[in-house]
Write a structure and sequence with these properties.
The complex is a heterodimer of chains A (about 160) and B (about 775). Chain A has about 160 residues and is an alpha+beta fold. Chain A has 2 domains: about 80 residues, Ubiquitin-like (UB roll), CATH 3.10.20; about 80 residues, [2Fe-2S]-binding domain (DNA polymerase, domain 1), CATH 1.10.150.120. Chain A has 7 helices and 5 strands; from the N terminus they run ββαββαβααααα. Chain B is an alpha+beta fold and about 775 residues long. Chain B has 18 helices and 34 strands. In chain B, the strands form 10 sheets. Chain B has a 7-stranded mixed beta sheet with strand order 3-7-1-14-11-12-13, with helices on both faces. In chain B, a hairpin with a 4-residue loop joins β11 and β12. In chain B, α9 packs parallel to α17, α13 runs parallel beside α14 and α16 packs across α17. The longest helix of chain B has 28 residues. The relative contact order of chain B is 0.13. Classes of the chains: A alpha+beta (about 160), B alpha+beta (about 775). The interface between A and B is large, with 69 and 63 residues.
Amino acid sequence: MQITMTVNGEEYTREVEPRMLLTHFLRDELGLTGTHWGCDTSNCGTCSVLMDGDPVKSCTVLAATASGHQIRTVEGLEVDGVLDPVQQGFSEMHGLQCGFCTPGMMMTARALLDENPNPTEAEIREAISGQICRCTGYATIVRSIRWAADHPAAATHTEEVAS
Amino acid sequence: MATTEERPIGFGRMRRKEDARFIRGQGRYVDDVNLPGMLHGAILRSPVAHARIVSIDTSAALAHPKVRAVITGKDLEAQNLAWMPTLSYDTQAVLATDKVRFQGQEVAFVVAEDRYSARDALELIDVEYDTLPAVVNARRALDPDAPVIRDDKEDQADNHIFDWESGDRAATDAAFAAADVVVEQDMLYPRSHPAPMETCGAVADFEKVSGKLTLWCTTQAPHAHRTVYALVAGLPEHKIRVISPDIGGGFGNKVPVYPGYVCAVVGSIVTGKPVKWMEDRSENLMSTGFARDYVMRGGIAATRDGRITAIKVDVIADHGAFNATAQPTKYPAGFFNVFTGSYDLEAAHCKVTGVYTNTAPGGVAYACSFRVTEAVYLVERMVDCLADELGIDPAALRLRNLIKPEQFPYACKTGWVYDSGDYETTLRKAMERIGYDELRREQAEKRKHGELMGIGVGFFTEAVGAGPRKHMDILGLGMNDGATLRVHPTGKAQLGISVQTQGQGHETTFAQIVAEELGIPPEDIDVVHGDTDTTPYGLGTYGSRSTPVSGAATALVARKVRDRARIIASAMLEVSADDLEWEKGRWFVKGDPDQGATIQEIAMAAHGSIELPDGVEGGLDAETVYDPPNLTFPFGAYICVVDIDPGTAEVKVRRFVAVDDCGTRINPMIIEGQVHGGLTDGIGMALMELIAFDEDGNCLGGSLMDYLIPTALECPDWETDFTVTPSPHHPIGAKGIGESATVGSPPTIVNAICDALAPYGVRHMDMPCTPARVWEAMRGNAEPPQ
C-alpha cells in the first residue's frame, strides 16, 4: 500500500506492506537509524518518536497508521546546525552511556518540555517511566532534562559538543 | 548548576567525546549496518525444553519466493560445524541435530530477502519433536533419576559438570567447631539476565574471491571472537575481520559466541551475499547468556562478642544445557572464592558443583566480575544473619571485622592477595553521609507505630582486571591487552586499544590517560577500537578489566612514547638525555626551564630532518602488551534505606548512598555514571528481575512484560561519594569500577528489606523481593522463587 508521511519536516511517499512497523519504515525505508528497536512489546521505549508532537513507540505503530501524520525523530532535533537544548543537556549531564536508549529518551524529553517547560523531578521521572535505560540509573537523565529546561535557548556550546 | 568547565589535559571531569554522535542519532550499531544486496536471517527455535528431533521438513520454507536458504543442523554436520566449542572448553550445538536441550535452542536458520519474509518462513518449517522429561531445577539435576541432558558427550552419564573447592576445609571445620556462634543459611542467587537494550546480532560478509570474512558483531571481545571463528570454522585468522561497532550495552551478555553469529557467517558463505541476523527480545532473554543461578548454603562462625572467625559455603551452580560460561580456564566458578569478602578471617572454604539443566546456557554475565556478585551477596547476607543472631548492629559488626589498612597487601584465606584498601574510612564516610545513627533512631520510632523501615549496610571487595596470564586464560588465550600509540607529525595522536566499550566511555577516558602521560589534549587523541584489522590483540571488555588491563597498557605505551621523545628532544636541544626533565607536555633542560621542547614540537622533529643519534629511529610510535601482575581490588561501602508498605508489601528504596574506592579516578563523571548504572542493577535484581521456568522448562521471563527492569520510578536519586586508595601495582593506580555497584548493591538492598522485616522474624528472604514474595515472607513463607 502507498503511504505518505512527513518526517522531520520532509514529506515521504512509499509503497509498503500494510504490516510494516513505523520503526522499520524509519530505519529501513528512510535510513533514519537513530530510532532504535529494543523489545517488540512497548516496554523499552528505545523506538520512541513524536507523532504530531506526542511520544509514541514506533515498534507498535504501523507505518500505515502514521500515514498522514507528522513524525519527528532524533535526526530532527538539531536544526540548522544548532543542537536542541535536550541534546546539549544529555551531553552536559552525562545522560547517556551506550547511547541506545538516548534518542527515545530525548524525544520524550522534547515532548515533555514542549508541554511543560518547567517540570519537577517527579514529572520528569513520570514522563520517561515508559522507557528503559540499562546504563545510567536515570538520575543523570533526569538532570539532563532539567538542564534543558534551565537552558531553553541554549546553543552556545554547540561547537564543543560537536568536537 | 555548573556544567561547563576547563577541559582537563589528563584526569578530571570532562564531557564525553563519543556523545557528539549519540545525541544526534548517529551512533552506528550492528543493526544500522546495511550492505548492498544484504539478506536477512532468522532462527527457528525449540518450543520445548528437552526433546529428540524426529524430523525437520524445510521444503515449504524453501518454496517461499523470498527465501534464499534454509540451514539445519544436518547441513552443518556435513561441514563439521553443527557443534562449536564454548569459552569453557565444552561444546554447544550451533543448530540442533540430535536433541533440543532448552526452550529457545537454535534449530534452523532461514535466509531471506527481507526480515519479515525470513520470519514468515520460520512458520513454514515443520519439526517433529519426541518430548523428553526436563530437569530445570539445579537442586534436582544430580538426582539418580534425572534425565541425562548431554548424552551427546561420551563419558557423560549424569548432569555433573565440575566440582571445585577453594580454601582449607579442615581448618574451616575446626574454626566452626570452636566457635561460640554458628549461623547457617540457605540462599539462592536467582537467575537474571543482562538484557542490554540492544539485543545481539551480526552482519556477516564473506567475499568468495579474497576469502575474507568481515563480521560486524555485538561483541565485547572482538579479538577473542576472531580467534574462536578461526578455530571453529577453520578460516585462516588473517582472513577474518571482526568489527564491533557501537554496542548498545553489554554487561557480559555480549562475551560469548552465539550460534546466531555462526549461522550468519554460514548464511553468507552459502548465499554469497552479506547476511544480517538480529535476535528479537524474547530470543535475547530466552537463549543468550543469563546470569547467576547459584544455589548456596552458607555458614559463618564467630565469637560471642562478634569476631568473625570463619566462613564456608556449598554451591550448586546451574550452567544450563551447555557449559558456555566465559571465565578464566582455571576458575570454573569464576572468582567466587573471593567470598571471604572484606573481613579478616581465620579460615574459609567453599565447594562449587556445576550442573547441566534444560535451560539456556550462561551464568557469567550481568556485570558480575566473574561471580564476585554471588560471592559478595553470600558474605554480606551471612554477616547480616550473624548480626541478627548476635544482636549487634550490622555496621558495628562490619567495623569490628574489616581488614585494617596496615594489613595490605592482604592474603585472604582462599589465596587472593588484595592490593590496597582503607575499608574503615570508607564505611565511616558512608555512615556519616547517610546519617546512620539518626536513621536508626527514626527506625526505632517508626517501629513503634508499625511502620516498616529498613536500613541496609553492605561492604564489598571486588576482584577485577584479569590476568595475569600465567594464571588466567580463556581457551588458552592469556588475558592480556595491547595498546598502540601513533603520534602524528603535528602532535595529534591515535591510540589503538583491544578492549571494546559498550557505553563505558573509552574514547574519552583512554584519551585522558594518554593526555595525563603526554600532555596532549584529549581532543587531539583519537581512540580506535572495535576492529580487529586496525587494533592490537587483546581479550576485550568484561569483568571490569578495561581500566586495570588496557588502561595500564595505555599508560605504559604513552610512557614509551615519552621515553622516545626524550631522545629526540636531546637531539633537538643538543643536550644529553640525562639532562632533560619532564613536565606534563614537554621535556626541558634541568636548571634551565626555558630551554625545552613540547611534545608537539618533538613529534614534528621526530618526523623531520633533524639528525638523530645512532640507533634511534624516526617517529614516536610505540606499542605494548600488558600483563597485569595481579588483579585490582576496588571496594566500597553502601547503605540504603527502604520503606515497605505493610498493606501491599511494596518495597521503595528511599535513599541509597554509595561510597566507592576505585583507586585513581580518571573521569569522575564517568565513574559516577558507572556506579549509578550498577546501583540500578541492584534494584532490578533485589526487587524485580527473575528468569524462572515452569516444571516443563518453559521460560517465564521471556519478554520485557515478564522480565521486569527498573524504570525511573523505582530508582532514587543516587548519592555517591568516594575515597581514593590507589592500586600499588597499576601504572596509574587505577582499579576497575564498571561492576562495583552491581556487585555491592543487591545484598545492601536485601539487608535493608530483611532489616525492615525483622519485626516479622524474617532473617533472610531470596530475591527478587517482589510485593507478592515480601507479603509471603511477612507471613513466614519465604520460599525461594524457583
